[in-house]
Design a protein that fits this description.
- By secondary structure, the protein is an alpha/beta fold.
- 48% of the residues lie in helices and 10% in strands.
- The radius of gyration is 21 Å and the shape is globular.
- It binds adenosine-5'-triphosphate and magnesium ion.
Length: 325
Amino acid sequence: MQTSLRGRERECALLDGLVGAVRDGQSRSLVLRGEAGIGKTALLEYLIGSAPDLGVVRAVGVESEMELAYASLQQLCAPLLDRLERLPAPQRQAMEIVFGLSSGAAPDRFFVGLGVLSLVSEVAEERPLLCVVDDAQWLDRASALTLAFVARRLLAEPVGLVFAAREPGEELLHVPDLEVLGLVNGDARALLGSAMHVPLDGRIRDTIIAETRGNPLALLELPRGLTSTQLAGGFGMPEASTLSSRIEESYVRRLETLPEHARRLLLVAAADPVGDPLLLQRACERLGIALSAIDETGGLLALDVRVTFRHPLARSAVYRAAGGQ
Ligand SMILES: Nc1ncnc2c1ncn2[C@@H]1O[C@H](COP(=O)(O)OP(=O)(O)OP(=O)(O)O)[C@@H](O)[C@H]1O
Ligand SMILES: [Mg+2]
């Protein structure tokens, strides 16, 4: 498939191969692994875009829901639950309890695992199925264990199970992985150039690329709003964790330039992990914030079927900035 992603030929070819295998009736599982902003979600979008003929179910790990058993699995399986009745009774009952469709004692994890396995296999009989789990570092443990079990047990079913994680939990360690690395050479230069309004001196450009280690989000976000003198100083950020916090800092700088009501809207949105537009609207009504302030958030927040931040680090920046108030 054509892609606007730079420098990801190898990764895209691997994902093409995965989709091809699933189309041919084989199961595949994969963890895309790499630091914040390196381009994992972008690759998942490529994957989904390259498989319009496959069924797709998705889940996103949510940091504030890590303590809620099966929260992420519920997201993933919700569109499939109409097939529950086809499952053997013990699996069906276990699934009904964990998804809150009936009450009862916490079921045996094994039955839940088998239930999910049966459910995806059943659905995949009609059409090959991709299960896509982003931000898997924030999966609740019960979901992570169940999905790892499913990844292990899938055999000749047309099911692809693809995770993206900054640092995968130990549950996913046996799943084949692909480390996503920074962009290099012309790709990094081109991406940085696309984010700059003024031409950059070649040496400064190379320093920035070296210091961001080709992290796409850093290349796109960090130079924004910096003067050429500041840029000439380089960023000086050796550690991956520092890189994330520098990206957050650049979002905080952008927040500071926004009008007060736009900042308050961002904070309200950051407090809702699900991104439910109705919820945001109600909260805004109560607080007397116009929802139209979304247009003044400088693109940090978008409203579609869901409320989405430009990037998870934009959301954490909003939190951090509010903490200091
Ligand atoms: N290869 C690429 N070419 C061009 N742009 C890219 C590429 N990879 C990522 N980007 C852009 O960089 C930004 C960060 O990428 P992305 O959100 O996929 O990172 P991530 O690895 O999912 O980070 P996180 O762990 O924080 O979720 C996005 O705006 C994305 O569109
Ligand atoms: Mg991501």
